[in-house]
Design goal:
globular; single chain; 4-stranded antiparallel beta sheet; mainly beta; 7-stranded mixed beta sheet; 11 strands
Length: 123
């Protein structure tokens, strides 16, 4: 059974940083791409970043230069380092796994989802 467990959210002031973790079980990063998504109530879920099976990384333009996605295969954990947080980054953040051969930033292409972790950025 594939499970993804996201953690690390919290309350932070604008300009601050957080690191989210996504611990996976039942899958290998050799077979799955992992993505981070976020959602604000009343809005669609949007992609933040993903890391492909070959380690290539992709980012939404809104977080480029501020967020970094990385993986630790030994710990089967994917991280999202979020620096210089902005008010607009406030959302529930989810990690998800995709079996597609090509990494995707579309939530529709992800097969397994973790529970969300709330990130709140205050002024």
């Amino acid at each position: 059974e594939v499970q993804l467990q996201a953690s690390g959210g919290g309350l932070v002031q604008a300009g601050g940083y957080l690191r989210l973790s996504c611990v996976a079980s039942g899958l290998s990063f050799d077979d799955y791409a992992i993505g981070w998504f976020r959602q604000v109530p009343g809005k669609v879920r949007e992609a933040v970043a993903c890391i492909a099976k070959d380690g290539a990384t992709y980012y939404d333009d809104s977080v480029k230069g501020r967020f970094t996605i990385s993986s630790d295969h030994a710990k089967i954990t994917v991280y999202l380092q979020m620096n210089n947080l902005k008010l607009g980054d406030t959302a529930v953040y989810y990690c998800a796994g995709s079996r597609l051969q090509v990494a995707s930033m579309s939530p529709d292409n992800y097969d397994y989802w973790g529970q969300g972790t709330l990130v709140t950025v205050s002024s």
